[in-house]
Automatic annotation (TrEMBL):
Keywords: Carbohydrate metabolism, Isomerase, Magnesium, Metal-binding, Phosphoprotein. Its EC number is 5.4.2.6. This is Beta-phosphoglucomutase. It catalyses: beta-D-glucose 1-phosphate = beta-D-glucose 6-phosphate. GO terms for biological process: carbohydrate metabolic process.
Length: 216
């Protein structure tokens, strides 16, 4: 019996990666180099600070602490301008169906995300009310693949880690879930997420029978 379900945000509930990409690309452009969509793959599930370090590496840009801090703020302000326009139409296919399935059965639901903007995003897409706990970039000290984010989420749900299920789109997230001894479910490319216990291209592929099997 699984008693806690934990969802990653970007790439699982909504595709905010495209807005992160635009904001990072704008910053790169300002700093005089190109940042491609392919390079943006490296940023998925990775903290804002780590993303900027990688970006500056790509552009071969030297930064003082002051520059670094300013660019962090600038990127986030830009990103927030994209987020501002989000609405429920941006929820990824069948996410709401799965959340409803769990809610109807009173199964505790948590968010486990690296983002510091998780709460306003869930509000924007009108999903906040489904979540019994939100653990995000504001609550953790160690980034995925460290299991901290999911362990705090399980604790907040009052569930033991072995009784938790994690939905993740990033390799580091699957690794974090596995280290936490949770059931990991990869959402996305099964070749990339080959370490996951189960794989689905997206939630439309996940039928009721599978979900019932998890909570039985
Ligand atoms: C998300 C994204 C990452 C982003 C991180 C931090 O992770 O995938 O690209 O850098 O959050 O976001 P923010 O700058 O909003 O704090 P997740 O864990 O939701 O997939
Ligand atoms: Mg993700």
């Amino acid at each position: 019996t699984k008693t806690g379900f934990i969802f990653d945000l970007d790439g699982v509930i909504v595709d905010t990666a495209k807005y992160h990409y635009l904001a990072w690309r704008n910053l790169a452009e300002e700093l005089g180099f190109e940042f491609t969509e392919e390079q943006n793959e490296l940023f998925k599930g990775v903290s804002r600070k780590r993303c900027l370090e990688i970006l500056l590496d790509i552009g071969n840009v030297e930064a003082s602490q002051e520059d670094f801090d300013r660019w962090m703020v600038e990127k986030n302000e830009d990103y927030l301008r994209y987020i501002e326009k989000m609405n429920a139409s941006e929820i990824l296919p069948d996410v709401t169906r799965v959340l409803e399935f769990l809610k109807e059965r009173n199964i505790p639901i948590a968010l486990g995300s690296a983002s510091k903007n998780a709460r306003p995003i869930l509000e924007k897409v009108e999903l906040l009310h489904y979540f019994d706990a939100i653990v995000d970039g504001n609550n953790v000290t160690k980034a995925k693949p460290d299991p901290e984010v999911f362990l705090i989420a399980a604790d907040k749900l009052g569930a033991s880690p072995e009784n938790c299920v994690v939905f993740e789109d990033a390799v580091a997230g699957i690794e974090a879930a596995n280290t936490a001894k949770m059931v990991s479910i990869g959402i996305g490319d099964d070749k990339v997420l080959s370490e996951a216990h189960h794989n689905f291209k997206d939630f439309t592929e996940m039928d009721t029978e599978f979900l019932e099997g998890l909570i039985k």
